[in-house]
Amino acid sequence: xxxxxxxxxxxxxxxxxxxxxxxxxxxxxxxxxxxxxxxxxxxxxxxxxxxxxxxxxxxxxxxxxxxxxxxxxxxxxxxxxxxxxxxxxxxxxxxxxxxxxxxxxxxxxxxxxxxxxxxxxxxxxxxxxxxxxxxxxxxxxxxxxxxxxxxxxxxxxxxxxxxxxxxxxxxxxxxxxxxxxxxxxxxxxxxxxxxxxxxxxxxxxxxxxxxxxxxxxxxxxxxxxxxxxxxxxxxxxxxxxxxxxxxxxxxxxxxxxxxxxxxxxxxxxxxxxxxxxxxxxxxxxxxxxxx
Length: 291
Fold this sequence. Notes:
Elements: H1 2-5, E1 22-23, E2 26-27, E3 32-33, E4 42-45, E5 48-50, H2 54-64, H3 81-95, H4 99-108, E6 117-118, E7 131-135, E8 141-144, H5 150-154, E9 164-165, H6 168-179, E10 183-184, E11 187-188, H7 192-199, E12 233-236, E13 242-246, E14 251-255, H8 268-271, H9 274-290
Antiparallel strand pairs: 1-2, 3-5, 4-5, 6-9, 7-8, 10-11, 12-13, 13-14
């Protein structure tokens, strides 16, 4: 499980999933229907629903996928969505319930996170939700309130690797709980060693914790400010989001964006190093305040 969480278990970054369910005419009727039913319960986008077997299909394709070739006897470190598909399946088997219900009952609701949810269109009007990509190849419409990730969409919007929506404030509360080593508002959500163990780099000189990421001081362009301490941990997201927690200075940095609007070809956040430059400003301001 450590290798899976550190993205060094040999799992590919991704595999064909939704691509298997479409053809030149569009969505295959064996996988999709325009009316929700017991046989097609998973909303891919409003008005389009996938088969109840979609999750099992994705799991089977994941299990059958080949591993990356080893280098000097070890699998290379390669970020993999499959890692979190595996973790979701494992968690639900241990918990004996769907992951979204467990998270709502044990984390989001007790923490007062009113916006944090999968499938936000079930709870909020579309006008409250930022649009993402104009999907011209799979769902063939402007996405707004439906998960951007195609594999997560295929299984109904709840993925181990994608699908969660939230406001910056709610995300800050969840991350502040982690920054406070598992406690928030007088309640304990994790036993004390859990956060620190998952947060620390697991190999000497490595940047991977268990699930969490760290900066790379060898690369001045990011993902964290080189002014932040080595203990800073967090994560970035495909759509340009990031969160970084600094336990030494008790600094929490949340950046929500929409890089993929109108399409995923927009690379300006990385091109201009926006997120890391903002992170630099925080630490420069901290240094100026100390003077």
